[in-house]
């Protein structure tokens, strides 16, 4: 998926643009892919792994999966690989892959999945029987750095099968093709400089050399060269390069004369042929290093590699809370590893894409007005955190915000860089909009960047005021864009479309029937939370000596105006105990969309606690601010106390800021904590289980739709793919809800309890509820009482086999009833939040409110 779909096709059609069968033969325009892929920061030079079991029709150079139309639940990888370890500097990385010894069942996977419907399960690689009798290879790649430009590569190959077997192992080095689309570009070259060495001049790192150690039989590996150029003959029937991109493939598999006998090109594979006894492991070694600074492949190699592994152990030992179990430590470490492995060079120049490349045929005229045509200023040439490098090799702004909260524990500098990046002038639109996601930059994601910036600021020690100031300045523009363009009637009730929740509703919220308007409770809740977070950032900046008093007041006013609109516009549904969207028909008819889903829970995320000093400063800000903070007057303490919004005595007063009153909050929590509704054994469902037996039906003039509870894969094609928020447990919203409960506990204190679970008769403090919800989320990944990890579901190989059971997958979402992992299998980006949760639940992370309170105590101006 390296070339991916940079601005190519309408949503989901991009998965068919570059089929797997073409990928080995076509030079990529925008980026690269490969097994265990590793590259420099601009992806000029790439290193990956190819394998051949002697049975497959092609080399295994890249992961295989189904495109959206091929899969009965959308695009889906049909391979088993894991990111087992990594550190922020990438001085140590560990990757694992299980490769069948039988022929890989490409056609079976496509045909069988194609014959299944949306109500059938997916047909997985393990289901094909290709791993039966343990006839597979365990391949691990370890990268260790002696220094920034001296890379040590270890490939370990284990025969898991019952018989001696042979494998071709081809570590591969190539230049990303930067010359075919630029007539003025210089074509690089690498060449054999010795029997097992390759000279590799690099435009930034200087003259490098790849050195390969002998194989286990003592023989030097074979060096095979071709060019990273499209095979025009195979793909188009036109004359092309003599040694094209797939030349090494054709030579190894078919014996073709498609590798350069002169030992030079832009792509080189180091070919080992190893025969391995059952249960045995062989080790192969390579080193990519400066040509004038040779390092050996023996004792020095071993010393550096072992030191880097030990340093990684020490790094994670320090990061792991003392109270965490060994299993939790393993989950946390692999979650962080997946995040770090998923950093990827992301190249997308929209203006260049729309206009076409010099010397190339002009793009079709329709492209000028197609997707992202209004984003000509977008020009990414950056390293970004990807949600899933196979299934989602692109960024989404709100996904990225969650990645950053987890990444801040291990690499706060990179986390801050990511949050700033989406606000830079080559990402953010001149009108203030943030790019939503590659499929459509102009769509709308929930505005969680201010929340994430506060979390990252706190996790980084609450020191980097410059970072907070920079992101705040750009988010001011984005907040204004929301107010101007996502509130069509100026009512402070916002629209926004699907807002990242895909098909959580009965209708496509991004593409309404003509003449309809959807006033969204979640969009309104997101904006209230946005206003609150921006107000808090402004207060932090003020405390640091920046002039921000007026901005604190501005965001308090916005928060209060949204709170008043939530009350006056009737977004609360007393029947469900949740908030509801309002669908306005062309004739003016208003139809509540009272689905019991996370859409109706989002407003509770806008919750903050103002202490005595903040209250005094707000009152001093003038009657306008005071009136907006509470319609009945901020200075009327008796009324505020009677409504439950003010607690504490003189000198210790606290005011609850938000859009959900205390009475509504109690009702909402009763729904949220009900096992028959949202509370599952492993977190909070995205849609209430109530709709399992009571589907919601929406009837509006000229419109009929319905939604039920789907705890697993989606059975509707509203957003294509495997998008489904109709029941599964989903980490991002769970994390936001639970951290908001922490803030509510800070206000209510230890003397306030709620029934938890609803109907149990048991009452807990909100901090006890928080602890239980954290435990439920983490339990998805842990070995339980029956020796099983819920996330592995009914897959016995994953549950029981020693070579599989401790290698974790971080799925996109989880079955709403049993916790089985679903959707994209390596969505470490947002599901990597489990690492953050493990640290939080064991007290290694203070809530943002506690951190800010300490800041206030240090500064006299709060």
TrEMBL record:
Entries under Gene3D superfamilies matching the protein: 1.50.10.10
Source taxon at top rank:
Bacteria
What residue ranges carry the coiled-coil annotation? none
**One protein family per Pfam:** MGH1-like_GH
Official protein name in the record: Glucosidase
The family database entries (InterPro entries) matched by this protein are listed as:
6-hairpin_glycosidase_sf, 6hp_glycosidase-like_sf, Glycoside_hydrolase_63, MGH1-like_GH
Domain Mannosylglycerate hydrolase MGH1-like glycoside hydrolase, which positions?
Answer: 392-492, 661-828
């Amino acid at each position: 998926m390296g070339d991916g779909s940079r601005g190519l096709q309408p949503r989901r059609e991009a998965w068919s643009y570059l089929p797997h069968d073409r990928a080995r033969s076509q030079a990529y325009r925008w980026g690269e892919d490969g097994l265990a892929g590793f590259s420099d920061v601009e992806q000029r030079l790439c290193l990956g792994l190819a394998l051949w079991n002697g049975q497959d029709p092609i080399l295994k150079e890249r992961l295989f999966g189904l495109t959206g139309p091929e899969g009965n639940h959308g695009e889906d990888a049909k391979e088993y690989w894991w990111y087992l370890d990594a550190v922020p500097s990438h001085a140590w990385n560990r990757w694992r892959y299980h490769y069948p010894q039988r022929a890989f069942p490409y056609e079976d996977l496509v045909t069988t999945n194609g014959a299944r419907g949306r109500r059938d399960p997916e047909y997985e690689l393990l289901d094909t029987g290709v791993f039966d009798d343990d006839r597979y290879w365990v391949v691990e790649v370890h990268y260790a750095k002696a220094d920034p430009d001296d890379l040590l590569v270890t490939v370990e190959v284990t025969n898991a099968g019952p018989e001696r077997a042979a494998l071709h192992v081809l570590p591969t080095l190539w230049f990303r093709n930067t010359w075919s689309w630029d007539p003025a570009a210089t074509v690089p070259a690498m060449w054999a400089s010795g029997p097992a060495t390759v000279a590799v001049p690099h435009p930034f790192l200087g003259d490098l050399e790849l050195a390969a150690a002998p194989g286990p039989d003592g023989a030097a590996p074979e060096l095979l060269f071709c060019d990273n150029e499209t095979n025009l003959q195979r793909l188009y029937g036109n004359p092309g390069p003599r040694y094209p991109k797939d030349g090494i493939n054709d030579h190894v598999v078919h014996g073709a004369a498609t590798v350069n006998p002169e030992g030079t090109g832009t792509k080189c594979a180091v070919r080992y042929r190893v025969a391995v006894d059952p249960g045995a492991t062989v080790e192969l070694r390579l080193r990519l290093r400066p040509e004038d600074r040779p390092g050996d492949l023996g004792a020095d190699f071993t010393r550096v590699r072992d030191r880097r592994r030990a340093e990684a152990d020490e790094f994670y030992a320090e990061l792991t809370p003392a109270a965490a179990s060994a299993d939790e430590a393993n989950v946390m470490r692999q979650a962080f590893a997946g995040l770090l492995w998923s950093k990827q060079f992301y190249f997308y120049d929209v203006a260049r894409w729309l206009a076409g490349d010099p010397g190339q045929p002009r793009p079709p005229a329709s492209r000028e007005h197609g997707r992202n045509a209004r984003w000509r200023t977008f020009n990414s040439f950056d390293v970004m955190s990807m949600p899933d490098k196979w299934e989602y090799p692109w960024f989404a702004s709100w996904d990225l915000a969650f990645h950053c909260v987890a990444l801040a524990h291990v690499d706060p500098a990179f986390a801050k860089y990511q949050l700033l990046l989406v606000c830079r002038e080559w990402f953010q639109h001149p009108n203030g909009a943030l790019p939503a996601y590659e499929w459509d930059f102009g769509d709308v994601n929930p505005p969680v960047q201010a929340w994430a910036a506060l979390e990252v600021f706190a996790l980084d020690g609450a020191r980097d005021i410059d970072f907070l100031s920079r992101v705040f300045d750009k988010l001011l523009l984005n907040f204004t864009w929301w107010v101007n363009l996502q509130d069509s009637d100026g009512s402070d009730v916002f629209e926004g479309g699907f807002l990242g929740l895909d098909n959580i509703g009965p209708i496509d919220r991004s593409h309404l029937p003509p003449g309809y308007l959807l006033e969204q409770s979640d969009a309104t809740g997101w904006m209230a939370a946005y206003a609150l977070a921006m107000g808090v950032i402004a207060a932090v900046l003020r405390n640091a000596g920046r002039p921000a008093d007026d901005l604190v007041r501005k965001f308090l006013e916005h928060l209060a105006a949204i709170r008043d609109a939530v009350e006056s516009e009737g977004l609360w549904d007393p029947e469900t105990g949740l908030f509801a969207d309002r669908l306005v028909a062309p004739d003016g008819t208003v139809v509540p969309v009272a689905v019991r889903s996370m859409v109706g829970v989002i407003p509770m995320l806008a919750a903050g606690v103002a202490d005595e000093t903040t209250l005094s400063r707000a009152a001093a800000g003038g009657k306008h601010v005071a009136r907006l903070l509470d319609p009945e007057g901020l200075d009327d303490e008796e009324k505020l106390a009677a409504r439950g919004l003010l607690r504490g005595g003189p000198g210790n007063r606290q005011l609850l800021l938000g859009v959900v009153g205390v009475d509504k909050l109690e009702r909402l929590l009763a729904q949220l904590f009900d096992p028959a509704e949202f509370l599952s054994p492993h977190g909070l469902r995205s849609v209430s289980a109530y709709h399992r037996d009571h589907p919601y039906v929406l009837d509006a003039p000229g419109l009929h739709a319905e939604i039920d509870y789907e705890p697993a894969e989606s059975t509707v094609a509203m957003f294509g793919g495997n998008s489904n928020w109709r029941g599964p447990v989903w980490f991002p919203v769970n994390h936001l809800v639970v951290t908001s409960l922490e803030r509510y506990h800070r206000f209510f204190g230890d003397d306030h309890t709620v029934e938890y679970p609803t109907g149990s008769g048991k009452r807990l403090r909100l901090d006890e509820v928080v602890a239980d919800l954290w435990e439920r989320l983490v339990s998805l990944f842990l070995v339980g009482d029956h020796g099983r990890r819920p996330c592995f579901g009914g897959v016995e190989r994953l549950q029981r086999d020693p070579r599989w059971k401790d290698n974790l997958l971080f799925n996109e979402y989880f079955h709403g009833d049993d916790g089985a992992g679903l959707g994209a299998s390596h969505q470490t980006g947002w599901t990597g939040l489990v690492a953050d949760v493990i640290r939080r639940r064991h007290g290694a992370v203070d809530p943002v409110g506690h951190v800010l309170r300490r800041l206030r105590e240090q500064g006299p101006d709060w």
